[in-house]
Predict the 3D structure of the following.
Amino acid sequence: MTIRRFRDSDAETVSALIVRTLLVSNTNDYPAEMMEALAKTQTPEHVRQRASWTHFYVAEEAGSILGCGAIGPYWDREDESSLFTIFVSPAHQGRGIGRAIVETLEKDEFALRARRIEIPASATGLPFYQKMGYVFKNGCDSMDEEHLYRLEKYRIPENQQQLLGLLLNRHSYRGAYRPDQVPRVHLTAIMEAGLSAPSGCNKQTVSLIAVDDPALLRAIKAVIDPPVAETAPAMICVLSQRIPACHDRCFATQDYAAAIENMLLAITALGYQSCWYEGHITDTDRIGDRIACLLGVPDTYSLVCILPVGIAASDPSAPKKKAFSERAWFNGFPKGGIPR
């Protein structure tokens, strides 16, 4: 069996399949006269019209169309979609054809961009869609005026999955770097990401210096003991100012932490690796002060972190993380303690 896009020449066959399914399968759950009236509307012209604004698919085997289904925008929304016209010939139900059609629709571009997919489900199709992960819209488990259940499934759009993948797969890198230069357009983009991070009361306490001059890099690395990031071809130095904000509180630490995380994500997104070096730089030996001196940083700033930037010479290794259920919960701390 293959699932392909609808062709105009399929209209009569698809129309006949829908009519047959309504009159055979759906009459188990609806009055026959209601299904007969609905079947009269499912003409080839109606099928073509629906296919004109949806992505319509048919399931085909040995030249025979066994099922159909469509997906389109939900009321012209860019981030919501709806499934339509999902039918499987009565003689071929129970073979997984309906599941294959829905899975195909959920891989269509209308589904990939959607945060929510809705399906107006008949009483006949309700158990099937629930098995496919669809739930009652807004918790309403009664039929509407069209004698249909409104079901929905929330999902993460493809572009947001890419962002979440970046978040979930970023790891600190402490290995060697390749000697490839980091273009300034990339360093600029990384710093812009850092400076766009939230700042308490918008005091903008974070400033940044990118270092890509080989001689200056050697001088900076010479004062870092024990040494780190010795082969990194570029480095971003994070400067912080303690500026009072709301109620004389200072949020400089939160500011530079947010900026650093933004930059780490931008570094990964651009194909580089890095590591957040702070404790080693701000320890009692005050390595950060010596780096700040090399960079001509005024005394009103503190150099709180360095971020090496470069292409990794080896694959970064992922640290072992505790299970989600050990660190995150809904609506309160788990009764009886943390599950193990």
In short: The chain has two domains: 2-159, 171-309. The chain has 13 helices and ten strands. The mean pLDDT is 96. The first strand starts at residue 2 and ends at 5.
